[in-house]
Amino acid sequence: MGRPARAADLKVKQEIPIPARTGAGLRMAAGEFVQVLDVSGQQCADFFAFSAADPTEHLSASHTRVAVDRLFPEVSQSFFSSLRRPMFQFEEDRSPGIHDMLFAACDPARYAHYGVDGHASCADNLRTAAGKLGLELCHVPQPVNFFMNVAVRLDGRCDFGSPQTNPGDFVLLKAFVDCFVVVSACPQEWNPAGNYHPSDLLARVLVAS
Ligand SMILES: [Zn+2]
C-alpha cells in the first residue's frame, strides 16, 4: 500500500464550502482524495458515500467495523461498503483522532425527541445533497461521523462528549472506486455533538500533483 498520502503533497481540484447546519455533495473518481476540514473546530462531519456504478452500494460503518475489528477508525485502515468492498483508505488524520462509527445520523425524529419540529438534520441534509447529485435514496445509511466524540465504557455504556478538534483539523481519504460523497455539518445543538454550537466544514477533492 505504501506510505499514506498527505494533503500537503496533493493538488486541490475542487473546494466545497459546507456552511453550518447544511450538507453538500461531490462526485469523485477512484484514485482521488477527499479532505474534510473542521473550519472553526468542535464540529462533527457526517460522511456518506455511494458507489457511482451502483448507488445502492454505500459506505457502511457497520461493515467497516467488522472488516477492521475496531469500533472507531484510524489511519491506514480502509472503509468498507455494504457489499464489504473497500471504498476508501484513511490516509491522513490531522485531528485528535477521535471519530465515531456507532451513531446514526440525526433526523427529524431525533429532534422531535427534543420537542423541536422543522429542525435541520444530517438525514435531511443527505437527502437534499443526494438529490442535487441525481441520487434517489431509499434509506439513510449509518454514516462515519468524523470528529464526533463517542467513547464506550467497559460496562457497554457510551460517553458522549464534545469534539476535540481545533480550527483547521482535517481527515484525508482516498477513494478506491468512483463514488458520490455527501458531507453534513451536523446541525445538532441540543447535545455535545457540536459543542452546542454548529459551525462550518469545508470539503476538498484533491488529486496527485
Ligand atoms: Zn447530525
Query: What is the first-to-last residue Cα distance?
Result: 19 Å
* Topology, number of strands: 12
Shape call: globular
Helix content: 10-25%
Overall average residue pLDDT: 95
Helix count, per DSSP?
A: 3
- Structural classification: mainly beta
How would you briefly describe this protein structure?
The chain is mainly beta and 209 residues long. The chain is 12% helix and 35% strand. The strands form three sheets. Strands 1-12-3-10-6-5 form a six-stranded antiparallel sheet.
Task: Describe this structure as you would to a colleague.
It is a single chain. Helices cover 12% and strands 35% of the residues. It is mostly beta strands and 209 residues long. A hairpin with a 5-residue loop joins strand 5 and strand 6. It binds zinc ion. Zinc ion (ZN) binds at residues 46, 105-106, 121-122, 186, 188. Zinc ion binds at residues 46, 105-106, 121-122, 186, 188.
Topology of this protein?
Layout: E1 10-18, E2 23-28, E3 33-38, E4 45-51, H1 61-68, E5 78-80, E6 86-94, H2 108-113, H3 122-132, E7 144-146, E8 149-152, E9 158-161, E10 169-175, E11 179-185, E12 201-208
Antiparallel strand pairs: 1-12, 2-11, 3-10, 3-12, 4-7, 4-11, 5-6, 6-10, 8-9
Bound molecules: zinc ion.
Zinc ion is lined by residues 46, 105-106, 121-122, 186, 188.
